[in-house]
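Please fill in the sequence for the structure shown.

STRUCTURE ENCODING:
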């Protein structure tokens, strides 16, 4: 990144999901300033994770850890079901522990369904709400209401134990979890995803959930830029490189710098 591109401008971070076994990781890092590296469970392998970390350090991008559910058939994108809590949450802790044994990341960003399952829209009175909450729980230090959501409590514990900032959706429990863990929060936006009115992402299964028109993507990037700290670039689609360049150029043309 040339200094002239960011000095005197508000900078927006571009983050990319990589290390999942797709072919364009190195090329995407020409545009990205942060990289969310797969832990080798929902996709990829541990060897690929280690080589991807080296690639990130070579390109001097900010490094994020990107743990996901141990569900390779859907690449970690299927929501957690009843009965899966224990093995799934155990896997998440193992992924993060192993990653940190090899490299210290700069932040944590949940992957796929782990991201969506924890992007819960909280009611205005959630801090005092107790309905349906367990009577006792080792996770209740995170709040009685939040203890109803296994994924949220695991995310909170990961942030607290490892003292990692969180990248996520601001209008959801992601912000509350980061605050309770007393860790910085990185507000994320998605250039090619349709949002619901409540600020969550429209499921990919719904028509129009993924934006493909360059004009729509460009417009959404400029709308997001003043409200987020980072914009996500996907690395698992055939047209990911032209998409990444579109987002990058849109920000520069809009008067923004690109950097973490």
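FILLED IN BY: designer on duty
SEQUENCE:
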């Amino acid at each position: 990144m040339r200094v002239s591109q960011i000095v005197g401008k508000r900078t927006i971070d571009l983050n990319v999901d990589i290390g999942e076994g797709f072919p364009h990781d190195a090329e995407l890092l020409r545009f990205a300033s942060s990289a969310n590296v797969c832990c080798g469970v929902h996709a990829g392998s541990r060897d690929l994770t280690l080589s991807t970390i080296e690639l990130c350090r070579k390109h001097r991008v900010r490094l994020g850890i990107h743990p996901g559910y141990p569900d390779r058939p859907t690449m970690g994108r299927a929501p957690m079901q009843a009965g899966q809590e224990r093995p799934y949450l155990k896997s998440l802790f193992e992924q993060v522990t192993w990653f940190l044994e090899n490299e210290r990341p700069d932040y944590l960003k949940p992957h796929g369904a782990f991201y969506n399952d924890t992007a819960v829209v909280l009611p205005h009175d959630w801090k005092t709400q107790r309905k349906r909450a367990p009577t006792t729980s080792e996770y209740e230090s995170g709040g009685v209401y939040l203890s109803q959501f296994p994924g949220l409590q695991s995310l909170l514990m990961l942030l607290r134990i490892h003292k990692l900032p969180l990248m996520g959706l601001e209008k959801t429990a992601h912000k509350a979890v980061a605050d309770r863990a007393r860790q910085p929060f990185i507000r994320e936006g998605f250039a090619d995803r349709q949002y619901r009115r409540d600020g969550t992402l429209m499921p990919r299964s719904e028509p129009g959930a993924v934006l493909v028109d360059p004009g729509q993507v460009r417009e959404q990037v400029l709308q997001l830029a003043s409200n987020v700290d980072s914009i996500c670039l996907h690395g698992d689609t055939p047209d990911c490189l032209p998409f990444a360049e579109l987002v990058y150029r849109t920000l520069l043309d809009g008067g923004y710098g690109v950097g973490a």
